[in-house]
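Hi W.,

Here's what went into the run:
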Amino acid sequence: MMDPAIVVDKVVKRYVVKSGVFRRRTSVVEALKGISFTVDRGEVHALLGPNGAGKTTTVKILATLLLPDSGDAYILGHSVTKEADTVRKLVGVVLDVSRGFYPYLTGYENLMFYALLRGLSRREAKARVREVLELVGLRDAANRSYLSYSMGMRARLSIAKVLIDDPEVLLLDEPTLGLDVHSARFVRSLILDLAKRGKTILVTGHNMFEIEQIASKITVINRGQVVASDSPQSLREKIGLVHRVEINVHALERSDVEPLLTAISSRLKLEKSSVETIAENQYRIVLYVAGSREYISSNVFDVLRTYGIKVLDVKIIEPTLEDLYLALVR
Amino acid sequence: MWSVVMAVLYRDTRVLKRRMYAMISLYIIPIIFSLAIVYAPAAVTSPSQVLQRFRLLTNLPIENLSELLALMLYFSSIISITAIGTSTAYWVAEDDVHEVLYSVLKYTTLSRYVLAELAVAPLQAVISTIYLVPATIPLIGVVKSVIMYLTYLPIAVVAMSVLMIYGYTIGLLIVRLLRTSEVWIVSNWLLPLILLASGIYIPLSLIPAVLRYFAYTTPVPYIMEIAKLVLVFRSLSTQVPIVLFTFIATIYVIATTYLARSCEYVLKREGILCLRRM
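Here's what came out:
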């Protein structure tokens, strides 16, 4: 098995905040309290947590832009504290999509600056910049001033900047923050596209719908500590969030449905159940069940087969990532 | 290092191209100062008295009012050079306003980046002084104007480079000691003080001792002395404080390199690289 692309090992970070007229008063904010997690190669890994949880601090430490107080982190086996120069060549970081560019230069010129800074020759830089602009769909707007760019275009340019290096690991801090639906969708598909090309991507965010679409694994941090780290499905099972099961059946009387409900409740531990009338001779059994999807489906279908009742529809609705997130950081 | 220099040069030439109108306003100010300094006293006394006073104050063998005005234009241009060269705000603006520094530090160190900024010094020097040629043609003629400018250009290039290092040293010192991003406040105080104690218009012997001592820590009085000797006497005698000037410039470079390293560490340690208000 390959080593993980990112290893965060017991990282502690404290900020000393100075206040008062002469800045003599100091207080310590513990941003990270010894967090540890790993990100496998080629994985889109989401770092979730409420505001102030320590997500951006973690990203900055991984990008070598911030030094941890203790602990260490490794990118493709290289320490971010001891081999910062090597790590910088391996990672691309997007910290704030609306920052990091010269407003009076065009998108093309801004990227040329970074390409030359990276050490590409002028010819190589021109070719690479055109390539990444094409990739993020900004070719037509390349010669427009950065000032005239919309937020969505700025986000794309931020990703283009990162891609100049063709880094193996991408660190994206809330890349769709403040973007309209169209731009956010474009960025999401870009992230998935990059993952298909073998990039390891660590992305932070608040939009659960979005994270659910792109991330194969999530780490939830709260108040500087890792609360959970696994795939969304495994986390759901571990936490045992309740599934909502809807069974639509055809029956002459409501009382015909009751034995079915009793049979199911004898096999599954129901948190709550009810029967609703949805049309003439059509009823919906609603069950709230704790357990894995497989466990629920096998038991429900076993009972349905035994009873021989006419089933119109069966839905097993999984708890959303949002439910999961709220359960973890509550 | 070469790639950093190339990148900075590319960026600055593009910025200059787009911000030329703002730069031009900086060049016009010294021209107005020069006209006022020569013609205001001449209006209340007489041109001959003004010439006599200038000869007395500066010990310069000036023959006529046009020559004096051309000379004052050149001396005043040091204001532009100082204003641009010491604009510590330039790199601070990058960090604080545009916040590109965190992206830049992915590729290089702060000390290399700051020193690479010097690559643009010769270009800045030419752009900020080239107006002197057309401005002095009506006063001393085409040939003299061109010769005077070509004599002056090396001084302008060296002056711009040293003033830029000086500006970065002060800017980094402020960030390092005060751990603040508000370098603008200090640099706004610094520029008038540097100009007051520059010896451009008021001889250093006439200014208060405190300012005089401050003046000698800045490169401007040395630049002025060298400019005076080259432009007026057209010679570099042993009296020229070149050794001292080189010594001071070397100290600036060492200090800048050390401070940049130290600042980078502080910025990373305290997390104020991108979160300026932490």
